[in-house]
Each structure stands twice: as structure tokens, then as C-alpha cells.
Amino acid sequence: MKLYYSPGACSLSPHIALREAGLNFELVQVDLASKKTASGQNYLEINPAGYVPCLQLDDGRTLTEGPAILQYVADQVPGKLLAPANGSFERYHLQQWLNFISTELHKNFSPLFNPAASEDWRNAVRQAIAARLGVVATRFEDAPYLLGDSLSVADIYLFVVLSWGAYVNLDLSPWPALQAFMGRVGGREAVQAALRAEGLVKD
């Protein structure tokens, strides 16, 4: 498999998931401005949408959109318990969280990375995100992870999105439960390996 990624982007979540799953894969970096891979290939030929992540299977088929890729990766190694079984209520609970993270958190971060956004707009976005973070923090009052006692791909996705706060002046200190969550997930071997591979932390 090949994972097309850009350092620190949302593609970091399937990257971490692949390492947690113990699957063999190749990382292919994409320049999102030029739409070229590190080898000079036209990325639009692989993913016409032009963004990451994209997972290319050994038979050439591709899968895009982070939540879909995360579930695919989890289903390759059911024994790792990165996702509940298909058809179970718990699986729909996982999908609930993946959708919440995607629509209520991930997309709300986008304006904060837009250099054209006014400070008033940025502040309004931060307030909207803060309201959503309060919802997530409540979940961690009685469980270490979103689905309970074990890490799932939803936790990986949440970790990546919350990590962007450091780049856009979004302070997590009002939510100690979220800070503790970031410490739990961030200290995992697979997470550290992915961060090193993408040049986000040094050895």
C-alpha cells in the first residue's frame, strides 16, 4: 500500500493508524501547492481532488477521505480493536465520532490556516471550536478514549486535529481532560514513529 500525505496534515491520522495496525505501507509525500509527489508525479492523476490523504492499494485501487481510510485500515486487523465490528452498535458509535470530528472540528480549523481570514473571523471560529471541544472533553470524564477503555481510529483522528491548536493559537488549557488525552495518545510508540517520519519531531 501507498499512503499519499503532507506533513502534519489530516493524512497524519491514517499514517498513525497504519503504524498502530502494523501494516506494511509506503509513504509518498505530496506538495499540495504544486500537486506533485516527491518524485515529480502529477498527484491529480492519483486523486483528482488534489488533497490528502489517499491510500493506494497494491492492486492500484485508491481510497480517499480520512474517515473511510481509517475504517479500512482498522478492518484489515480486527484483532487490534481499532474499530468495532461492522454492523455492531459500537461501530455506528465510532462513525458518529468520526463524523463529529470531521464536520465540527476538522472543517472549523480550516479558516484558521487561511492567511486571508480576518482576525474577527478567526476569533469567531475559535469560539465555535471551543464550544465543540467542551462536548468532547465531557466524554473523557468517565473514559480514557472516545469509545471507552481502548484506542480507536476516532481517537487517532481527534489527536491529529487537536494537535493543530499549537499552530493556530488555540489553547487547550481550559480543558485538562483534552490535554490528558493528548498526552495519552501522543506518547504511543506508533504516534511518535509517525511524527518522526513526517519530520514533525526530532529523534
UniProtKB/TrEMBL annotation:
Residue limits of the GST C-terminal domain?
87-203
Whether Transferase counts among this entry's keywords is yes
Transferase among keywords: yes
Alphabetized CDD domains for the sequence: GST_C_Beta, GST_N_Beta
The UniProt keywords, alphabetically, are: Transferase
Fetch the Pfam families from UniProt.
GST_C (PF00043), GST_N_2 (PF13409)
Report which superkingdom the organism of origin falls in. Answer: Bacteria
Q: Which PROSITE patterns match?
A: GST_CTER, GST_NTER
Entry GO MF terms = transferase activity
Domain (GST N-terminal) spans 1-81
UniProt xrefs under NCBIfam families: PRK10542.1
Descriptive protein name: Glutathione S-transferase BphK1
